[in-house]
């Protein structure tokens, strides 16, 4: 038995392969990864949502991690699950456990996509748990935006491929611009209550709508929904702007319906000039969870809620 590792090493194979277990092991891991996808889809991509499906996935992944302790795919899926479950949980144990796994994965030889996801979630967790110096140090280790995958692919290809990558770069930049501007305004009370803050968000909406001039916004429907619903709340807090608030809410409501109409069983083709070569894969189309409107309405000012309840168009969503 003591010689088995040496024998496997001599033939440059794993111990599982030496005993003919590799294929069975790989099939089991792939089956677990496929089965636990449903947990994330049940959250609609929203952090801190404790759905029964996600809790079931956690049990499956804990058992899988014991059975296959060295597999980075299982560990990454487990860390992601804990990350989602722990975000709004007062008990920080989920987040701490997730952090520990991510820190181990950061040193592993992961694919560039998985490594990027680990870095992003690590920074978010460090911030969330108030390890600010660790968050800053990790961010300092990363490359500049000028060296990111989307930028480089758009620069190093030609023809159809280049158009596609430029479109993907445009989408990525729009997402980051939305996050940067929204956070800068909403986390600053002086800005969020000012006409200037609203003007910036309206300008961002206009940029989105110019780029998606054919109204086929794909995943950007969710960003436009967020921006319009945010503007509706900001306008409602200024009672003289209640009419504007209702217009914004209706536009956010429309973008919500448009996104819900996108099938998660087929790839989505953008058709606007700048995005016409981009395809949104079906597996990246997150279904909207049933609790979306219930959660959102908790943020809506009462003066706006009262007006919305008068409109039968929204009644089903507001109950």
Task: Explain how this protein is built.
By secondary structure, the protein is mostly helical. It folds into 2 domains: 125 residues, Serine Threonine Protein Phosphatase 5, Tetratricopeptide repeat; 174 residues. It has 18 helices and 2 strands. Strands 1-2 form a two-stranded antiparallel sheet. The longest helix has 28 residues. The chain is globular.
Summarize the structure.
By secondary structure, the protein is mostly helical. Helix content is 67%, strand content 1%.
Total helices: the number is 18
Which assembly state applies to the chains in this document?
single chain
Which consecutive residue ranges, at least 5 long each, have pLDDT under 50? none
Structural class estimated from helices and strands: mainly alpha
Strand content: under 5%
- How many individual domains? 2
Question: What is the averaged pLDDT score?
Answer: 90
Largest β sheet strand count, sense and barrel closure:
2 strands, antiparallel
Backbone shape: globular
Terminal residue distance: 65 Å
- Work out the number of β strands: 2
The level of helicity is 55-70%
SSE order in H/E notation?
HHHHHHHHHHHHHHHEEHHH
Give the strand line-up of the largest sheet.
1-2
Radius of gyration: 23 Å
Question: What labels would you give this structure?
Answer:
319 residues; mainly alpha; Serine Threonine Protein Phosphatase 5, Tetratricopeptide repeat; 2 domains; two-stranded antiparallel sheet; 18 helices; 67% helix; 1% strand; globular
